Amino acid sequence: MTMMTAMGLNFTAQMAGALMGVTANSLDASADKSAAAKENDATAATVVPLRVVKKGRAVQADDLKRISGVGPKLEKMLKSMGVNSFAAIANWDDAEMRRIDEMLGLDNRVIRDNWAGQAKALLEG
């Protein structure tokens, strides 16, 4: 074998080795991406969605100040809590009235003034 042939074979062997290395690295990267994708899929499957609020007809906001004991400030606080109508207040039971009273810091005014009863009367006309 001549020197050029030996060098050519050596160069060819080096190139083949380099090509094998590149291919192996590429396969490793693909495997890493595949594992990461599987992990992301597993994570996505375990995520619990937030409670979805269904949109319906818009509820007409009532003038809550018509309830004795509710002024502009309390009306604004109630509406910020999502209480916009007499119907919502009319459906409160004693436990809900106590809870709302405590949230608003009203020292039992919601029950004492019977907001639920007043709201029912306002709904009836």
From TrEMBL:
This is 5' DNA nuclease. It comes from Rhizobium setariae. Pfam families: HHH_5 (PF14520). It comes from the Bacteria.
